Amino acid sequence: MMKKFKIQNSKFKGSHPLAGLCLLLVSAFSLQPSAFAEDAAPITPAVKQCVDKAVAWLMTQQRAQGCIIDENRSDAVPQHSGAMTALAIMGLTSVGHMPIDPTPEGKTVARALRFMTDSIVPTDEGYLGQSDRSRMYGHGIMTLMFAEMMGQG
């Protein structure tokens, strides 16, 4: 029997819509069998339509600074913008939109990645969560995104 756990006194009550959408994009494709496997289930038109709609929405959330957040804040590095942008980058790249692509989606990823490299400045110890005030949660997400982007080579 599986037990349900409830986080008490959590600072993050509820869920963040942008984070949920990015995780949905990543999981929609990463949990499926390899696309190269002969027995891989094809992506249905309904799933493709949902993914395309999610990608389009993420693109509308990109701010002038290049970050992708669902709040219209004008500060140079809005709170949690590094973590949210990293999630969006991973979501967009998980469905094939790379920063070198000449498409609008590719340009969105490239601008977001430029925001990350220009605006998220690590401390002397290498900690990334201070720039956007996202703490260790953001540090982990941003580190994963940077590692994945380096792996794309």
Determine the N-to-C terminus distance.
Answer: 43 Å
Largest sheet: none
Structural class: mainly alpha
How many β-strand stretches?
0
Contiguous low-pLDDT stretches (5 residues minimum) are 1-15
What share of the residues does DSSP label as strand, in percent? under 5%
The gyration radius over C-alpha positions equals: 16 Å
Q: State the order of secondary-structure elements, H for helix, E for strand.
A: HHHHH
- The helical percent reads 40-55%
Q: Estimate the mean pLDDT confidence.
A: 80
Could you characterize the architecture of this molecule?
With 153 residues, the chain is mainly alpha-helical. It has helices at 17-30, 45-60, 81-94, 104-119, 135-152. The protein is built from 5 helices and no strands. The chain is globular and about 50 Å long.
Task: List its salient traits.
globular, disordered N terminus, 153 residues, mainly alpha
Give a short overview.
With 153 residues, the chain is mostly helical. The protein has helices at residues 17-30, 45-60, 81-94, 104-119, 135-152.
List the SSEs and their pairings.
Layout: H1 17-30, H2 45-60, H3 81-94, H4 104-119, H5 135-152
